[in-house]
Amino acid sequence: MKKNLSRFQVRKLLGNPNSIKGDLSPRIDQVYHYHGDLNADGDEEKAIVNFYRDRVVSFASPFLK
Asked: Does residue 52 contact residue 28 with C-beta atoms inside 8 Å?
């Protein structure tokens, strides 16, 4: 995952999100939400990907700490 990927590239990389929502921030158009056992360790993780004009501007990964 990195900045400037398109929505299509993110779906190809991560699969379909669990939910897609809008955002009130003027710099974010859509937010993809992923949740579940993302790394098959038995614990539930959550990740989000923020888009502006069809490009990733930021993301929060449960694996980067």
From this structure: yes
* Nearest Cα to Cα of residue 63 among 42, 51, 17, 46: 46
Q: Tell me which DSSP letter residue 24 carries.
A: S
Cβ–Cβ under 8 Å, residues 27 and 34: no
5-52: per-residue pLDDT in tens? 999 999 999 899 999 999 988 999 999 999 988 777 888 889 999 999
Please give the Cα distance from 38 to 63 (Å, whole number): 10
Closest by CA to 30, choosing from 43, 12, 9, 48, is 48
Q: Tell me: the pLDDT tens digits for 1-14?
A: 899 999 999 999 98
Matching residue, tokens 């993302």: 38
Tracing tokens 């398109």 back to the chain, one arrives at: 6
